[in-house]
Amino acid sequence: MARKILIVDDEPNIVISLEFLMQQRGYEVALAHNGEQALQQMETFRPDLVLLDVLMPSMDGYEVCRKIRERSDWGAVKIVMLSAKVRDVDISKGLALGADAYITKPFSTRQLMASVGDLLSAST
């Protein structure tokens, strides 16, 4: 059974690229374009890993991460935050809220795929 990845980003070009990349690697993919959609997808899609943009309107990635971590039934879900926010304080905040990894944009696809692979292999 394919591992499931939820991609959460409000930038269409990034979503399309990430979706293609993950599907090429054999992952089942669902999409969300904001925080509210992400939480709805968490309920129905039940991903193994979430690729979560930080800067989104209405509910940012930090808030989504916090809400995911508040739910014990979502505790095994891995979260990779993707952000143009590169300051140490921003990275520390994401990790403190429960992200398993924080990757700054622009990122290399090799780095991203290595992180995704490592996190998913650690959760089996």
From TrEMBL:
Q: Which InterPro entries match?
A: Bact_response_regulator (IPR050595), CheY-like_superfamily (IPR011006), Sig_transdc_resp-reg_receiver (IPR001789)
Lineage, top-rank taxon, reads Bacteria
Tell me the Gene Ontology biological-process terms attached to this UniProt entry. phosphorelay signal transduction system
Q: Which residues carry this modification: 4-aspartylphosphate?
A: 53
Q: Which GO terms describe its molecular function?
A: DNA binding
Q: What's a Pfam family in this record?
A: Response_reg
* The keyword Transcription regulation is assigned to this record: yes
Per the database record, which ranges form the Response regulatory domain? Answer: 4-120
Q: Does the keyword DNA-binding apply?
A: yes
Q: What keywords tag this UniProt record?
A: DNA-binding, Phosphoprotein, Transcription, Transcription regulation, Two-component regulatory system
* Protein's name in the database: Chemotaxis protein CheY
Species per Swiss-Prot/TrEMBL record: Noviherbaspirillum autotrophicum
Q: What is the lineage of its organism?
A: Bacteria, Pseudomonadati, Pseudomonadota, Betaproteobacteria, Burkholderiales
